[in-house]
Amino acid sequence: MINAQHLASPLMRGLLDNYDTPDFFCELMNRNASVPPIINCVKERLSALSIEELKTRTASAEAQLYRMGITFTVYTDKEAIDRILPFDAIPRIITAEEWKHIERGVEQRIQAINLFLHDIYHEQHILKDGVVPSELVLTNPNYCQAMIGLSVPGGVYVHINGTDLIRDQQGRFLVLEDNARTPSGVSYVIENRHMMLRLMPDLASGLPIRSVENYGPRLHQVLCEVAPDGVADPQVVLLSPGIYNSAYFEHVFLSREMGIPLVEGKDLFVDNHRVFMRTVMGPRPVHSIYRRLNDDFLDPLVFNPNSLLGVPGLVEAYRQGNVTLANALGTGVADDKAVYAYMPRIIRYYLNEDPILESVETHICAEPEGLAYTLANLNKLVVKPVGESGGYGLLIGPQATRAELDEFSQKLQQNPKNYISQPTIGLSVTPTLCGNSVEARHVDLRPFAVTGRSVWVLPGGLSRVALRKGSLVVNSSQGGGSKDTWVMAS
Fold it and tell me: Which residues does the UniProt record annotate as the domain Circularly permuted ATP-grasp type (predicted)?
């Protein structure tokens, strides 16, 4: 471990000497409160490196990532659709106290989301009490009729969740959005750690960094816990759309981490409302399915009749209680960007508690006052379509041209229900290698949680970094990269 003398030693000149700390909250350089000794230690070790050495190590990391096939797909790029997620070798540090706050907030939020989903598919108390508008839920494209009246094991609808967090100018963690359908990115959390320990052992040596190694076993345990009653040794599988899916690497990775078969729809069939997997030894019963398929493609008998990716009869087997789907059908209502605006009320309604993690102020354009405010302040706001992800289809008002503002104003007036707006938040920044210098770049954080008999939050998360100067969009599909997230144990 690190001794006090080492922590207190003066910073050496080096990597961070010319770092221009911006007016934003910098998580490494200008914390408002007293700086934890761990932060000073990391700063000292970074300062001992040269730009050339950091560039060499980063190039080595990205070459290894590519050789290992750790890529994602960008369908809009005709020249190179398979890319590695750019990796920045300067880690992001989260103190033990900060993580405790995040962990409690994520656990609270997931508990409320599961209670909300059970309610809207059963008694609908929250709708009848007028806390959330009925129309917003019942006409939502993600509201699943097949889930009405269906009770799921343990009341868990969202078994795997990714909560997107940002830090504002004061360093507060705020929830930007929920990902309660098929959240991706946890493979990068684990592989980034492997890469950092190989390439930067001198930086990590002796630090009390919490491990991220047990995500796979934890997830497998949860999927066994929520299997149908009476199954002593549940068979769990990961259902993937196949090799052309943008997150296929992650599907392969997680199936290996859990030690379970990776299957496609053609590998499964339903007989007498029970799901089986085709194997060389004959049919084998399947009890829990971690599905990385959207609802619409899961069962052509219930959803899209043209889907070749799903399993005919799967939904009825699910309704009969013979198989568990993780996440449950219809969970997309809970991560709808308009429903997000009501999450503070949802938490208070079900838990009788104030939210531990605050949400970003949100204006719902489907409501007259929300639309009027958005149109009047379009050049100051971020406007998002409620059903999109990956940073597509949004407007960042302060960075938009007059023509773009006018065009988006027309879109809002033509289809206000499709949009919400939020103030432009000055996202926190961290030092990031940019060519031949270290510069401040904006970051967000996606902690991953798995829920069975209890909620467990992986001690770390996907830190996405906006590599383009001045950009607030961190998504990989929009040119973002990632960092290793070091959560300290003490």
Answer: 91-466
Q: Considering its fold, how many domains does the chain have in total?
A: 2
Residues forming a β-bridge with 237? 289
Planar angle of CA 301, 307, 309, nearest 5 degrees:
105
The whole-angstrom distance between residue 442's C-alpha and the CA centroid of its chain comes to 17
Residue 170 domain-assigned? Answer: yes
- Cβ neighbours around 165 below 10 Å, total: 19
Distance of CA 411 to CAs 27, 279, 361, 405, 420, Å?
37, 51, 22, 10, 12
HSE-up (13 A, CA, CB side) for residue 342: 22
Instruction: Report whether 292 contacts 274 (CB < 8 A).
Output: no
Same domain, residue pair 389 and 477: no
- pLDDT, greater one: 149 or 390: 149
Q: How far apart are CA 66 and CA 62, in angstroms?
A: 6
Residues 395 and 434 in one domain: no
- Position 273 scores a pLDDT of 98
My answer on whether 411 and 430 are in the same domain is: no
What tokens appear for 222 in the block?
A: 């949860």
Query: Which among 300, 381, 334, 65 is positioned nearest to 182, based on CA atoms?
Result: 334
Per-residue pLDDT reduced to its tens digit, 71-83 = 655 544 555 456 6
Amino acid at 352: N
Radius of gyration, alpha carbons of the chain: 23
**In terms of residues, how long is the chain?**
490
Tokens of 366: 């489907």
CA dist 185 → 161, 222, 316 (Å): 11, 19, 30
Give the Cα separation of 108 and 430 in Å (integer). Answer: 28
How far is 316 from 323, CA to CA, in rounded Å? 10
Q: How far apart are the first and last CA of the chain?
A: 11
- What confidence tier does 6 reach under pLDDT thresholds 50, 70, 90? very low
Structure tokens at 361: 């102020």
Tokens of 351: 């838990």
C-alpha to C-alpha distance for 467 and 111, rounded to whole angstroms: 34
Residue 73 has a pLDDT of 56
Q: What is the pLDDT of residue 35?
A: 79
Q: Indicate whether 74 and 12 sit together in one domain.
A: yes
Shared domain for 450 and 382, answered yes or no, is no
Q: Are residues 128 and 192 in the same domain?
A: yes
Q: Cβ(191)–Cβ(34) under 8 Å?
A: no
Instruction: Give the CATH number, domain containing residue 369.
Output: 3.30.1490.270
Q: Please give the angle made by the CA atoms of 123, 291 and 258, to the nearest 5 degrees.
A: 120
Confidence category of residue 426, pLDDT binned at 50, 70, 90? confident
d(CA 82, CA 72): 6
Q: Where residue 391 falls among pLDDT bands split at 50, 70, 90?
A: low
DSSP-assigned states of every residue in 248-260: HHHHHHHHHHHT-
